[in-house]
Amino acid sequence: MTDDLPGRSVVREFRDNALAQVLFGPHNVNLERIESRLGVALDPRGNTVTISGTAEMNREAATVLDGLYDLARRQGHIETADVDAAMRMVHRDPSPGGDLVIRTRKRHIAPRTPTQADYILALDQVPLTFGLGPAGTGKTYLAVAKAVAMMVAGEVDRIILSRPAVEAGERLGFLPGDLKDKVDPYLRPLYDALYDMLPGDQVAKKLLAGEIEVAPLAFMRGRTLTNAFVILDEAQNTTTMQMKMFLTRMGEHSRMAVTGDPSQTDLPPGVRSGLADALEVLDGVEGVRFVRFTDKDVVRHDLVTRIVRAYDKADRERLP
Q: For residues 102 and 107, what is the distance between their CA atoms, to the nearest angstrom?
């Protein structure tokens, strides 16, 4: 319920007192964060909040509060990251054509930035999506979430997650254990994402049955991947031939997501990145979409955003 008051104020009333307190946060910490970021004054009284600012500020703050109240109703708690996400998303124009919430067995995942929303739509709408940008922007995590959601819904039969094991190089053979032991450390982030989406026993069962496969990029050679959601992570570390090999594995009723940061590569000097090459070769090709993340999309700790910006600034200053 909203009432316009004199003096450019708006009142938001939240019927459930307990949820209102979850929304406000301990000692109104969530409201204080919204005030500092959106430039409004928020005055909580019982289960109502009076918003004071310009008309546009009031609309934005009211939208954020309404969204967070709905989130509190769904998940029972509000985290700082949820507050920040709601404020980032308030500037995004609604886009038709897809459900932005990804539903998996363990959690429902909503976009936390406008670019994440565009990325989820792309994963919904086209066979091949490139997620490009710095660490911490959710590129791989959202792709794994979408893959799991499609498997749960019966839209794909298999999930295949892959990374180039460039960091290991020729030293891979000197590591202890069998081949799985050697490559698993390089694939651990993909396993971590899987366990976030599915109960552990289901992950283990599907891995054993081959419904979920986590493998180095070299294992993709010579295969045709049908009825599958295939993800290539850390794609900036592929060579041009490896990238072409991977992309041409796509079979009928399959979806592919390629994620990476074109500015970071572990390839030897003089070796062209397959990701950089693909961005040029596939530009304008029907069925391919490129979604570019920036430091504004970093959804890890606030310090990660500052670190990314500091490195970007240093890289620009080093340019001749």
A: 8
Residues 6+ apart with CB under 8 A from 298: 134, 135, 136, 137, 304, 305, 308
Share of residues in the chain with pLDDT > 70 (%): 86
- Give the integer Cα–Cα distance in Å for 13 and 11: 6
**Using CA atoms, how far apart are residues 163 and 241, in angstroms rounded to an integer?**
15
Query: Are 280 and 272 in contact, with CB atoms under 8 Å apart?
Result: no
What amino acid is encoded at 97 in this protein? Answer: G
- Tens digit of each residue's pLDDT (9 = 90 or more) over 202-249: 999 999 999 999 888 888 888 888 999 999 999 999 999 999 999 999
Q: What angle do CA 85, 87, 93 make, to 5 degrees?
A: 95
For strands 108-109 and 102-103, give the pairing. antiparallel
Residues linked to residue 4 through DSSP beta bridges, in sequence order: 10
Q: Residue 130: in which H helix or E strand, if any?
A: strand 128-132
Q: How confident is the model at residue 275 (pLDDT cuts 50, 70, 90)?
A: very high
Local structure of residue 237 (DSSP, 8 states): G
